[in-house]
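Researcher: Please predict.
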Amino acid sequence: MANIQKRPNGKWRARYRDLDGKEHARHFERKIDAQRWIDEVTASLVTGQYVDPRSSKKPFKEYAEEWRAIQPHRPSTAKAVAQHLRCYVYPDLGEAGTRRHQARRRTELGHQSDHHARAGRQHLTDGLQHGQRRFQGGRP
């Protein structure tokens, strides 16, 4: 359920309740902007693409470990993924939150000239692609 109300200060408050029933609100100068925001949030809820704003506060390392635990990797691939995360990713992103400013940091990491970090990322990517082909029944 979502609604938009005009506030006494002239701004428009758009509110909605997430899947857990928690209310979220934002204030806008124009009603059309409030409606656009509500429409985007509602569409993401309906299509299953909704991301709880609170989840972005989770440390990257915690998120990555949860992701790693549900992957259908072979033991050797799981070991390689864990090693690459520990050696190349966690030192830079491990304890940081996954908020927007971390996207900027990940972009910076993508442009760094450190040969070992690039080689590690490439090896991880190659290993994941190889594992995916094998999982889908393709040739290695």
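Model: Residues 56-135 form one domain.
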